[in-house]
Amino acid sequence: MPDPDADPTTEELRLEQLQRGARERDRAARSPTEDESEQHERRAEKAEYLREKLEKRAAAERAAAERDSDEAI
Are 25 and 40 in contact (CB under 8 A)? Predict the structure, then answer.
């Protein structure tokens, strides 16, 4: 069982942002007012931005791990 106090992995954070964006887009579609809908849409856009940043971070982590394994040989 994972340690609940451990920091989440980049992949876990990326998935969380993906889910958050989907939830906010759904809420935006169901919002009764335009203002509320726009607020949810902005939150969805922020989640998308953070997910993209986490994808870049994951790619950098993979590249660093690959460099480290190449240096170990």
Answer: yes
Q: Containing domain of residue 53, as a range? A: 11-72
Pull the structure tokens for residue 20: 């958050």
Segment 37-57, tens digit of pLDDT:
999 999 999 999 999 999 999
CA dist., res. 67 & res. 17, Å (int): 28
- Within-domain flag for 5: no
Domain count, the chain: 1
Name the nearest CA neighbour of 21 among 58, 48, 60: 48
Residue 20 has pLDDT above 90, yes or no: yes
Average pLDDT, whole number, for the chain? 92
Q: Is residue 27 part of a domain?
A: yes
Structure tokens at 52: 């993209």
N- to C-terminal Cα separation, the chain: 33
